[in-house]
Amino acid sequence: MPVKISVITASLDSAAVITSALQSVIAQTYGCVEHIVVDGASTDNTVDVVESFRQRYGLRGYSLKVISGPDSGIYEAMNRGIEAATGDIIGILNSDDFFSSTEELSAVAAAYARQPAIEAVYADVDYVRPGHEHRIVRRYPSKGFRPWMMLLGMQPPHPSFYCRREVYERFGKYDSRYRIAGDFDFFVRCLYKGRIATLRLDRTMVTMRTGGTSDRSILSHLQGLWEHQLTYMRHRMPTCILADSIQLIHKIMHLKPFARP
């Protein structure tokens, strides 16, 4: 019996962008998929846009769940989705992101079928400008990641991370006290301290639009650095804010500065 994959999308006033995410889920070639959209009481017509796809999900044979109501932020929304998920494998697709091809979930399922001992997979992520989705402006590579690199503020691309349900049961969900680094804290628990068995997929799995919570401004980068320091302190890890700042250099190194719309 094929494994079920649960894709969780947190949304808030995302009517202008969420269609790409929905279309990219429906277009997947893998047959056993559950999509859970957790909306934080949007004031636009986000939920209406999602509901307009319900018949198409049904025809595709996919399950679509919509959870709507106020929350404290993106990590609480993700946690609600995880709690509602019934899949064997769980991943996050942000409302303004989309799968890079129709084969991404098939690649995830195939990896687990080949290597049943693995507990999580991850891959590369591309960034594009809103309105110019044809042109890649930055790549977030996953090759070469090692858990010790988290001491330098580095982590695998969260939008490409698909893990077994048991990982959340063992290490807990996302700490909703964070605004930006809740995924970093989660990775510290399961990758750095927990040393779960992972596999990198040699592909670009997700395309992200720039301007998200973590890369919106210099202030958001500084907020992220501060939250990394909190994570190190909470987990009693060695820390150096200068070393942690290397992640910013890492991002700059992978910019495509001559890309134009």
Automatic annotation (TrEMBL):
Domain of life: Bacteria
One Pfam family this sequence matches: Glycos_transf_2
InterPro entries reported in the protein's UniProt record: Glyco_trans_2-like (IPR001173), Nucleotide-diphossugar_trans (IPR029044)
Example of a GO MF term: hexosyltransferase activity
Coiled-coil zones: none
Segments forming domain Glycosyltransferase 2-like: 6-160
Full protein name: Glycosyltransferase
Gene source species: Candidatus Amulumruptor caecigallinarius
Source species taxonomy: Bacteria, Pseudomonadati, Bacteroidota, Bacteroidia, Bacteroidales
